[in-house]
Amino acid sequence: MVKNLEYVVVLACIIVPKTSEEEFVMSEPHEAPLIIGESSQVQKVRMAIEKFAPLAAPVIIYGETGTGKELFARLLHSLSSRRNGPFIAVNAGAIPETLVESELFGYVGGAFTGALREGKMGLWEAANGGTLFLDEIGELSLAAQAKILRVLQERVIRPVGGTEDRPVDARIVAATNINLMEGVQTRTFRHDLYFRLHILHVTVPPLRDRQRDILPLIDYIMRKLCPELHLDEPPVIAQDAREKLLGYIWPGNIRELESIVTRTLSLCAGMTELHADDFELSESDVRVPPDILHLFIEKGPLRRMKTRAEDAIIQWALTASDDNQTAAARLLGVHRNTLVDRLRRKNRSSR
């Protein structure tokens, strides 16, 4: 059961700009968001964030879309000495190339056609004393990256049309769902900016690697939806539904989880128990460990291939279950004693 739901933040914020005025979200959070996640993978990320919080260096947060990168950025901000300052989240990749400079650095009055007479403060300056979160930084053009690099080096910005630099004091936290080093190698990401940012870094694991967290997340999402759907309590998730949900790879991560749970609960409002058929999941995304797929096409004696495939699948299940043998056996669809016996035989043969 999750307590203090009003202070729980689970999902990464999706910032979809409609106009240049809506390309960022500014807030001044004082409460540290509670991370819903019992898995060791999530706890390792939290520990890293706690270590990074008191430092001044930039932070890069890696992770697939929908894993909650902004959540951890907000956690870092709330644990830092800048917690009472603004937290500004910018979908950097969504800002048009022609507006990057004016959005981030602002402009003076009359700088260009359509500019406000009084000018406009840029997001970087608005984040003074706080944290500037640059999401999808890997999507920025090389020209935009060069402008960001200058600010990181000089700690000053120059508004569009201005003649004087202005000092800025905002901690930079960036996020991306791509491998920036690969971007450096393919020359789509500046190597000097990479090394400026890649001082402190952490990777948020995908939901498929956090099996232990799936049911607690579903419980939170359903309880959050209850008032909206006029429900006193969320329905019980039957065992067949649990197995189906735990056996899915969640390619859209927490964002997809919320969407599916919201749809299911909305269509099944009034039901006291939800079964597997109530959850519509893509059959093509049934859980298959990606790191063992090669074993099914590997050439060699059938017995050796079968043994190696079984070992790999068991190891994957144990990892996904945080080394909990009962949970791993449930994931594999076998009794725990069967799994324990298989592990014993494996250990004997490896001696």
Shape: globular
**Overall radius of gyration:** 24 Å
Q: What characterizes the major β-sheet?
A: 6 strands, mixed
What's the order of the H and E elements? EHEHEHEEHEHEEEHHEHEHHEHHH
Quote the beta fraction: 5-15%
What is the percent of helical residues?
A: 25-40%
CATH superfamily of the largest domain: P-loop containing nucleotide triphosphate hydrolases
What's the quaternary structure here? single chain
If classified by CATH, what would the architecture of the largest domain be?
A: 3-Layer(aba) Sandwich
Task: Give a brief description.
The chain has 351 residues and is α/β, with parallel strands linked by helices.
Write out key terms for the chains shown.
single chain, 351 residues, alpha/beta, Rossmann fold, Helicase, Ruva Protein, domain 3, Arc Repressor Mutant, subunit A, six-stranded mixed sheet, two-stranded antiparallel sheet, 13 helices, 12 strands, 11% strand, disordered N terminus, transcription, transcription regulation, AAA_lid_NorR
Question: Your description of this structure?
Answer:
The chain is of the alpha/beta class. The chain has three domains: 5-203, Rossmann fold; 208-285, Helicase, Ruva Protein, domain 3; 290-349, Arc Repressor Mutant, subunit A. The protein has 13 helices and twelve strands. Strands 1-3-6-9-2-10 form a six-stranded mixed beta sheet. The longest helix has 19 residues, at 302-320.
